[in-house]
Amino acid sequence: MAFWRSKKNQDDEVPQSKSTASNDAGNEIRPVDVQTTASQSGATSTEGSSKSSGPQSKSGSGGLFSKMRGALSKTRQALNTDIRDLFKAEGRLVDDKFLKELFSRLIRTDMGVASAEAIRDDVAQRLRARVVSLEEVLETITEQTQSMLIQESTGLQYAESGPTVILVVGVNGSGKTTSIGKLAHHLHQSGQKVVLGAGDTFRAAAVEQLTVWAGRIGCEIVTGKPEADPASVAYQTVDRALSIDADVAIIDTAGRLQTQTNLMQQLEKIRRVVEKKIDTAPHEVLLVLDATAGQNAISQARGFSDAAGCTGIVLAKLDGSAKGGVILPIREQFQLPVKFVGLGESIDDIAAFDAAAFAKALFAP
């Protein structure tokens, strides 16, 4: 098992350890000079900080809305074009024909039948038999969407003491490893000491990718040999987090399909081994869903939710899809809070989910 703290460098190269040792299991261990590398990477001390408060966003509500608006531009443009086509210059009477046409437009965002019906019915209740403008309808839809997306909390659930352990699950191609990197950077920038665990040992590219992310961020990473037991990597990651008094341990898992029973059993094994190190762990199990997958994202959520015991969702690739409405049926069917959304390709393009900003950005003219 290898672990080291990578330092930031312009070429995103993975720094090499000068010496190695072996642990009892015969895995390779790369020693860490935490004090030296922390100063090189610009890491900040988190001693004495309150973990329960979590990371604070650097941008205000205006900045978050602007980023949300940019990420949802494809969905919004498609929606506004479709809905605008329903109107004439003098407005439009809200009757059965209009409501039927509105429903068909909403469905195109992959928000699902139930969500589209709820929005249509709300428009009918408020505006039926009135001649209304496009702006009035969009305002009504925005308010209803926001109410459907409101959730008790989007914040991470932190451990009362010791490291907070986060497992991240999702199918191959969902943006899982990239989302881990962005989340780790988000936490690191807020002053949290983060350790990454490269538990997707069945895919060498995933380990390499996460190692590069660790180098860019300036945090430690624990890796295993190719096709090593993922549960072993998870165990060593939590062990390392405890030994260096880290705030957060984020563990990648294999990008498995929800239909593969044996791989789902591996997830259960990972949960058991991290619980041996910290009896309250994992504190979060985040499911990464690809926004471009549309309704298929729902089947992913259904498969992982039970097997992995998911506690929240990261909606990735929101900027690359006109199907941003899929967040509505996911919330309605699974009652899983959306914790974070991926807003672009940059390392900073991740944000804690905000229902008001999302709804406004989705339908804003």
Please name the defining characteristics of this protein.
365 residues; alpha/beta; two-stranded antiparallel ribbon; 13 helices
Q: What do these coordinates show?
A:
The protein has 365 residues and is an alpha/beta fold. The protein has 13 helices and 13 strands. Strands 1-8-7-9-6-10-11-12-13 form a nine-stranded mixed sheet, sandwiched between helices.
Task: State the gist of this model.
By secondary structure, the chain is of the alpha/beta class. 45% of the residues lie in helices and 14% in strands.
Topology:
Elements lengths: L1 E4 L15 E2 L5 E2 L4 H8 L19 H11 L1 H12 L7 E2 L2 H12 L4 H16 L3 E2 L1 H16 L14 E6 L6 H14 L4 E4 L6 H14 L2 E4 L6 H14 L4 E5 L8 H17 L6 E7 L5 H14 L2 E5 L10 H8 L3 E5 L7 E3 L2 H9 L2
Parallel strand pairs: 6-9, 6-10, 7-8, 7-9, 10-11, 11-12
Antiparallel strand pairs: 1-8, 2-3, 4-5, 12-13
Helix pairs in contact: 2-13, 4-5, 5-6, 6-13, 7-8, 9-10
End-to-end Cα distance, whole Å, is: 52 Å
Topology order in helix (H) and strand (E) letters: EEEHHHEHHEHEHEHEHEHEHEHEEH
Number of strands: 13
User: What percent of the residues sit in helical stretches (DSSP H or I)?
Assistant: 40-55%
How can the largest sheet be summarized? Answer: 9 strands, mixed
In round numbers, the mean pLDDT is: 80
Strand content: 5-15%
Query: Which structural class best describes the helix and strand composition?
Result: alpha/beta
* Helical run tally: 13
Q: Give unreliable regions as ranges.
A: 5-59
**Global outline:** elongated
**Strand arrangement in the largest pleated sheet:** 1-8-7-9-6-10-11-12-13
Radius of gyration: 22 Å
